[in-house]
Amino acid sequence: MVITENVRAPAPRPASGKPVRPLRLPRKADRGSVTAETAVVLPVLVIVLGMVLWGVGAAGAQLRCIDAARAGARAYARGEDPAAARLAVDQAAPRGATLVVRRSGELVEVRVRAPVHPPGALQRMLPTLDVSAVAVAAVEPGADSAPFLAPAAGPQTAPAAVPDSALGLGG
């Protein structure tokens, strides 16, 4: 009968020759520190995420302003009905956008500006961004008779500063 004893093998040594320390469990004082650190960092991560989303929203609003200004400049330069031109701008522009149409000689300039508000609770901490775009188009022959684009009239803002009747919308 062979009796064997449980003999503990010596700890392996790395190539450096120093003994390897066994892994220790965290002390009781360290327990819960990960939870506390996460609780501190989580609100910061939410704020950063909100700011990133706000930036993406601002970039999208900028692109929509560019599209709206281009559509408006084309429509006004072709001499389309002012209501149809305004509709083209409204369909492409972000919500709350303002439109300024100006004619200088043979050019029509359309400027679209829109506010971009921060999301949620960030509205109290961060300002509203204004994004805008300008498009210029040459007035086509035969479009010179449009009354809202008379060169001497200067800038006109729709819808608030120009009455609907001046834009050919009736009323």
What does this structure look like?
With 171 residues, the protein is α+β, with helices and mostly antiparallel strands. It has one domain (32-167). 33% of the residues lie in helices and 18% in strands. The protein has helices spanning 33-78, 82-92; strands at 98-104, 107-116, 129-138, 156-158. It has a 4-stranded antiparallel β-sheet with strand order 3-2-1-4, covered by helices on one side. β1 (98-104) and β2 form a beta hairpin. The radius of gyration is 33 Å and the shape is rod-shaped.
Q: Count of helical segments? A: 2
Helix and strand content put the structural class at alpha+beta
Radius of gyration: 33 Å
Low-pLDDT windows of residues: 149-171
Order the strands across the largest sheet as they lie in space: 3-2-1-4
Number of domains: 1
Quick one: overall form?
Answer: rod-shaped
Task: Specify the biggest β-sheet.
Answer: 4 strands, antiparallel
Task: Give the integer mean of the pLDDT values.
Answer: 77
State the helicity in percent bands: 25-40%
Q: Helix-strand pattern, N to C?
A: HHEEEE
Total number of strands: 4
How much beta, percentage-wise? 15-25%
First-residue to last-residue Cα separation: 114 Å
